[in-house]
Structure formats: structure tokens, C-alpha cells
Amino acid sequence: MQTPHSQPNILVTGGAGYIGSHAAIRLLDDGHAVTVIDNLSRGNRGAIAQLARVGGARFCFVECALDDTAKLCEVMRASATEIVMHFAALAYVGESMERPLEYFTNNVVGGISLLNAMCASDVRKIVFSSTCATYGEPASENIPIQESLLQLPINPYGRSKLQFEEILRAECARANDANPLAAIALRYFNVAGADRALRVGEDHRPESHLIPLALEVAANTRESVMIFGTDYPTHDGTCVRDYVHVEDLVDAHIKAISALQGGEFHAWNVGTGRGHSVREVIESCRRITGHRIPERIGTRRAGDPAQLFADARAITRDLHWHAQHTELDSIVSSAWNWMQANPCGYQ
Length: 347
Ligand SMILES: NC(=O)c1ccc[n+]([C@@H]2O[C@H](COP(=O)([O-])OP(=O)(O)OC[C@H]3O[C@@H](n4cnc5c(N)ncnc54)[C@H](O)[C@@H]3O)[C@@H](O)[C@H]2O)c1
Prior knowledge:
Elements: E1 10-13, H1 18-29, E2 34-38, H2 45-55, E3 59-63, H3 69-78, E4 83-86, H4 93-98, H5 100-120, E5 125-131, H6 156-172, E6 182-188, E7 190-192, H7 210-218, E8 225-228, E9 240-241, E10 243-245, H8 246-259, E11 265-270, E12 276-277, H9 278-289, E13 295-298, E14 307-308, H10 313-319, H11 328-341
Parallel strand pairs: 1-2, 1-4, 2-3, 4-5, 5-6, 6-11, 7-10, 8-13, 9-14
Antiparallel strand pairs: 9-12
Helix pairs in contact: 1-2, 1-8, 3-5, 5-6, 7-9, 7-11, 9-11
Residues 14, 16-20, 38-43, 65-66, 87-91, 106, 110, 129, 131, 188, 190-191, 204 line the site of nicotinamide-adenine-dinucleotide.
């Protein structure tokens, strides 16, 4: 790939997926040359087609799995990669309880293969998609969650993400390294919404996230939305989560690039610092879509903490990051706009 640009060349893993495709499109908008690798196990070819349209000669897609170290080396050398944004992962909590080995293999062994390829290709900067699932079930006095809270994940997905954070931390601290690794882990809370120009959006199959699930009911592709538990110790009895717009999340990655320092590992929460209950989210979906969105009440799911929301002061203080979409309705309406423009997603 030709790279006559002053912006660093970026390798995006998992760029056919929801968040990776939004990051890739923002990087292309900002003038970077972007190479996406993805094995398409969960991603969408439609997202790749959109990135190719936007990026032209500055965009390249290689179908490649994380465990193919040799191919990753080839890709990094051919694209003169300077920074890796690592989104590729298996990311369903429930599935991780059923298939733990697959999760550790994909998310930890795959990550190690990526790091080996980076080392061999002299690429020393990485921004990693971590998650609030690494915190497990914090006690109510630890909400909002600060980065310093002891991470005690309660499922294989969260553990796999924490293990890769630990590998990054150790690599950054490697003794006697003339060209040390620089790594940042961003611990996302609940990500939602879509590109404002509707070029890419959220199309998970199967879908497990509340906002798209509720919007699918409004779009008449699902009959009702399930509420898992109405007896939590929260103001309306349903679970409270922190919803961050995908464009704001990507903006945190852009800011993280300039904070990458050789030999240093940093982790920041990315959330708005405000919690919204499941009922509030469904109400917002009703307001935005004008649809009544029938709900069903189910029992609590194992491992669903009553409240999870971020203390996001550290990323604001250190990276000057602020969420632009501070209102839930703004996030929901962005997701709804994409769904209306793409009623069958990328299909
Ligand atoms: N969506 C959220 O709310 C959320 C919250 C916290 C953290 N995260 C993290 O953000 C990242 C992106 O999440 P997403 O919602 O975009 O997921 P996604 O499933 O839409 O995208 C992940 C992409 O990675 C690819 N992939 C998976 N394993 C791979 C492998 N071994 N080799 C190559 N490609 C592989 C998939 O094909 C897919 O395109 C993940 O690491 C996830 O853990 C997401």
C-alpha cells in the first residue's frame, strides 16, 4: 500500500466488526492509511465494502486470523504499520461460559500471536479494546468504578481480556529493552449508536445488546424485548449500565494514540459516568421510535451486577476526552437512524 501521508499507518484488527469498522472509518476520515485484518468469524463484508469506498487507495483489507503470526508479519511489513488498534475478539459473556477454551484461545493466544508479529515487525504501539467485564461484580460502594478497583472478572470473557491486559503490562515493563512497547487498554462500558453519516453501524448476529434488541422490536423484526430481572436494588428494579456512543469511544482511541509512550502501560475507563436502567433505555427507544415496544419480564441472569457505570474522570483529566453524546436519546436515535436506513443490516 502506498503511504504518502504524514498520519501514522494503522492496523485495525477486527475492523469488519461493529466498533472496529467505526474506528477504521474515523481513521480514514482523518487521513490515515488503514489496514484491516479480520477472519470474518463475526464481522461483516458489508462494513469492509464501506471502508473501501471511503478509503480508496488508503484502505486495505486482508482476511487473516489472529493466530496466523506469519501472515500478520507480512501484513505489517507490507503496510508499514506504526500503530495497532486491537478490536478482534470473541465478545459474548454467555457464550464464554459455554466455550471458555475458545475464548481464551481466541482472545489470549490470538493476542499473543499479534504481539509476536508486532515484535518481529518492529511495531511497538498498541491500543487494546478492554472491557468493564474485567471488574466483575463490584460492591455498590465501588460504583462508579475507578480504574484502580481490583479487577475480579467473573466469566471467561472478562478473564481473557484481563489476561491480555496483564501481558501488555508485562511487555511494556520488559527489562533492558531498547525499543519498549507502548500500550493502552481502554475499558469500554456499553457501546451503542452508529456513524453519523450512516456509512457503518451495529449488526451483530446474534444480537445481544439491549439498544439494538429494543429497536429491532420497533422495526418489527422482533416481537418483544426481554427484561432480565425487575427486583434489583436500583431505582426501578432493573439493571443500570453506562452507555457510550461508538463515535465518542472511537474518539477516545484517537486521543489514546498521542498518549502512547514507550515502556508505559495505561488503562482508562470509557463511559459517560452516568447509569441508565434497562427500563429507561426501553423508554428512550419508545420515545425515539414512536413504537410501543412490548416487553417481557424474565428472571435475573447469573452474573449480571445490579449497577455498572464508570468513573470517567481519569480519561477526561489525562486525555481531555469528553463524551459528546451525553443524553441517552441521542445515542438511541443514532442507532435508530442506522437501522432505518439499513433495515436488514449489512445483508
Ligand atoms: N460492543 C460492546 O459494547 C463492547 C463493550 C466492551 C468491550 N468491547 C470489545 O470491543 C471489541 C469490539 O467489539 P464489537 O462489539 O465490535 O465486536 P464484533 O464481534 O462486532 O467485532 C469483532 C471482530 O473481530 C473479528 N475477530 C474475532 N476473532 C478474530 C480472530 N481470531 N482473528 C481475526 N478476527 C477476529 C470478528 O470477525 C469481528 O469482525 C471487542 O474486543 C470487545 O471485547 C465491546
